[in-house]
Prior knowledge:
The chain has helices at 6-11, 27-39. It has 50 residues and is mainly α. Residues 10-44 form the Nitroreductase domain.
Amino acid sequence: xxxxxxxxxxxxxxxxxxxxxxxxxxxxxxxxxxxxxxxxxxxxxxxxxx
Length: 50
């Protein structure tokens, strides 16, 4: 099964109110989530080199 496009993930996201304690999350999934956070725009949209 191919990975969904980022736009599809954002458009179809839902808030989760019920968490499954003890449910395992793979390291690969965590790394992809963190990587997406690195590419997200910052609050002030400033570059660190300025």
